[in-house]
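Minutes, structural biology subgroup

Action item carried over from last meeting: produce the structure token record for Prominin-like protein (Cotesia typhae). EB confirmed the sequence was re-checked against the source entry. Recorded below for completeness.
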Amino acid sequence: MVQYNLVISYIGWSIQSHGLITVKNGWLEFADPVKQWKILVTHYGGLGGLAIIGIIFAAIIPCIGLFFCCCRCAGHCGARSQPFDKKYDHCRKVFLNILLIGVSTIILFGVVCAFVTNEYMQEGIENLPSRAKTNLKDVELYLTTTKKQISTLLTTNYNELEITLNNILQASGKIVTEELAAYSHAVSLTNLNEIVSGLDTIRQDLRMIDKLTRDLRTNASQLDIVVRGVKKNLLETLTGCKNHECQQVLHDYKINQMSIQVDFDKLPDVTLALRNITSLMEGNIVSEVSQGRETFLKIQRNIQHAVNETIPVVSASIENAGRSLASASKNITSLIDKINKEITKVYIPHLKIAQDNIEEYSIYRYYFGLGVSSVLLTIFTLLTFGLLCGICGKRPDGFGDDCCNKGTGGRFLMIAVWIIFLLTSILIVITTVLMIIGVMSHRAICEPLQNPKDNYIFELVDELVQVKQLLYPNNLEADINLSWIVTHCHANETLYNVLKLKYLMELDSLKNFVDRYAISSTIDQLREMINLSPGIVILTESATSKLNDLAQSGLSDIKFYQYAELLKDNITNVNLEHLGTELRRIAAVLPSSQANITDSLLKNAHDLDHYHKDLILPMTLLSEQLSTSALELQEHIKFNHGSMSEAIHNLVSEVMVAQQFLNKDGPKYVQILATKFGEAFLHQVNGFLEHLIKTARDTIGRCGPVSNAYNSTIVDGCNRILDPFNGFWVSVGWCLILFLPTVVLCVKLSALYQKSDPYPGPLVESIHDKNHKNHSRGSNVYSDNYDSPTIGVYHGPERTVNAIQRTSYHSSRYSDQTSKNWNASNDGPPKYQIAPGAPPLRPEYERPPPYYFPGNGSRN
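Output recorded by EB:
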């Protein structure tokens, strides 16, 4: 494609439009050629000059061909040549062959380019509708996605904001109260309330611990009694048993030391703490502390009640702003739907029609291009065969010649010359028409599409296609055109900037939403409704006294960790179950003579198993439960402090400070909180609006996909159709230009290929030159030379004599007046005449072949 681009660049300056085409009332209006002839010559002279030159050549070449044909018929222009080479003919043939090979190679490049560009052009034409449809689908998908993004931003997100703002308004009292409680440390009242509210759970835990402790002590007393009894029986029985194994059990299990090793009496006593807590609960400590919390919550309810009168006004303002954004969203999405509808209902059906027409008619254009390329290929093929035969073939001798001798090569070259004369004019006209169409299309279509900025033709398109009437029919003052859309779309700007959606929704005006829809003023009214009255009592003296009694209830003094320490060991120092098993084993091996000891061992083993199951195992479970409950209660009553007593004293102190703050500085601080609440509320609205402005202007609907589809369409139309189209006519024109030297070389080489003999020497050449001159004056030199003594006495090389004879014979073919000496007596071939006084010729010097004798009469 480089060659045609160079040509386009060379003649492209001639296609610029400078006021020659204007748009008037929606129609193209062309300038008067008579009045604007200077501009036409200046800017269209290059293309027009090339077209005129082509037409002149197309008219002249048939005349040249006719003159050349007449010249050949008259025996000139290479029609007849000498039978042998001249002195430098060999060098001429080598030089001309090289030139023709070079020219043919260059012609081959043009032929190949013609076939390739014709194929590429057909492929591009056939695929154009489908690729254009794909690009339109991409644009449609981009617009649909952008539409969803706009709807989500302006409608869905604002609806979510509206719900959030209403929730904030409904919880405004709680928000202010929580901030007030955190600042004034009144939040400690909540912690106190949690402590007293959990007293019932603490009391239940203490009751459970107390019960578990008493049960363990009771079981421990029973277990101690039975263990003592078993210990006494086993000592008597094992002592009376003389078996070694009895003594071993007595020693290993330390039966004499068997006892309960856990002192359950040392477990902490929770009775006092349980009694104190029960007394406090019966004294309504929970209700009195809860009453203080209820007093503080009353502040929240009063604030919320005051705010509720203003909430509907604020909500209405927010809702009005939302309706405005929803209306803008609807207008923008309607515009996008309009564009999508045009794509679906208009452009895609037109592409289907174009596809049908291309499938039906494009094949004729393809065959036309194939025919033109085939003519070039035919000429190149003839040149190739001519060169092959001319270079590799033998000389023509007229008798039994090979089909591919040098004469055949010359005839191939002359056929190529005649085809060139016959068809070049038609090819020049075709090439000129294609050149005009291709160059005009490239400059009028592709260049404006590729570079729409500051392009006069695209300015005409802007005037012809009124985009603002399509996009904003109700706003004719809209400043938007097609070049703006294309240029800014290539810059990957957002849809808002590309389509100038500011005519539907001015983003900067959103900054005034809070004032336009009175959101700010209603928030000011809301702020005024938030206030606090002094005289607040959140913790009475009675409640304080009871909380102090709770701190001194003794609960904090209980060492709950002792439960885990005391109960971590086994209840007895001997495993009763294992001991019972061992007693059964010994009883089984004792002899029958010790039946009493055996029965005693079995009875003790049975008692041990019973005590293990009925006392040890339940006590173990109770011990684990008691340890766990005690540790949990210990952590629970600390309330994030060292102890319950410390927690209550600190919390009571903080609550009293909070109560003093609320009565003294509370009203003023509530006003500060109300102001912060209003600012935070407006910040939510303004933050969303800023996010909306930034997102719509810089993020949503970036036009990169449309730019890609646009560029892809240009590639499909210009690079895959128009570029091969221009490459085709440049390739054909390339070959046509090279046909001029080709004709000259073919004619020269054809004359050289027809010569049958090599260079014979300077003597024969001089004789032939003399004969040629005489022949041109009408004399019969060859007849005289047959009787010439010079010929008769010549004793040169045999090949030279033969060349002379063939030359004489060859010349005689073109002379009707040459006299022959026939041997009429024997009707044989003619003999040489011996000059007077010359010795007779030997028989082998008679005239060499051919011996064919046609008989008396003239020879043609």
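Discussion: The beta strands are 21-24, 27-30.
Next step: EB to file the record with the rest of the batch.
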